Amino acid sequence: MMTGLIGNALGWARGDFDRLDRLQARLVMGTRIDESGEAMTDFQTAQLAADDTGWTTQGRAESRRGGEDSYRSPHLRFRQYRARLDALVALRVEPADEEPTLDAIARALDRPMRPLFIGRKPCLPMTRLVAGIVEADDILDALRRRAPAPAASCEESRYQWPNGEGAFDRARAVDICDERNWKSGVHGGWRSVFEARGPFVAAVSCVSSHPEGSA
């Protein structure tokens, strides 16, 4: 999702396969979840006639098929969401001097070429996406330096970070499939990550506001 979000902010097209694959390969990132929220199913309907068309991810219109009775009932969809989830992503790009640089990505997220959305088009950002830039030893260190949002419960966060990007007591190693082949549109790339639960900020108690210069 992060590759697509950044690519959209930069104004890239869905068909820019080489650029999107290269950006994905350069991203080194981890996540901290402060509030897991709750699962929500959105029930959607649309009354479509025989001559109505729908737009697909391939960028071309798709016509409907079927007899007359096919169009008497609405088209039904069930969409899964995570309501009130609060997550922080720490990332860097390697090599750092290749375009787009980290600074260029931050500028694009602040002033995107197109409207941004989180996963699905109805899910618009409710606040600024860039929390700041921080100097840290690794991805896990960057995640732990950031204070929680005021509404966070101030107990424990869930961390996920790449192999070799920090150490945490009682961490478990898992393999996840979250890398996308942008030409085929299928997720099939695996990578090793660690997961653990722990305090929000190392050696810092819960605070009521975000400090300057965080990740």
Automatic annotation (TrEMBL):
Q: Which InterPro entries does this entry report, sorted A to Z?
A: CRISPR-assoc_prot_Cas5, CRISPR-assoc_prot_CasD
Coiled-coil regions listed: none
Q: Which GO terms describe its molecular function?
A: RNA binding
Biological process (GO) annotations? defense response to virus; maintenance of CRISPR repeat elements
Specify residue ranges for compositional bias: Basic and acidic residues: 61-72
Q: Where is this region: Disordered?
A: 50-72
**Protein's UniProt name:** CRISPR-associated protein, Cas5e family
* Lineage, uppermost ranks: Bacteria, Pseudomonadati, Pseudomonadota, Betaproteobacteria, Burkholderiales
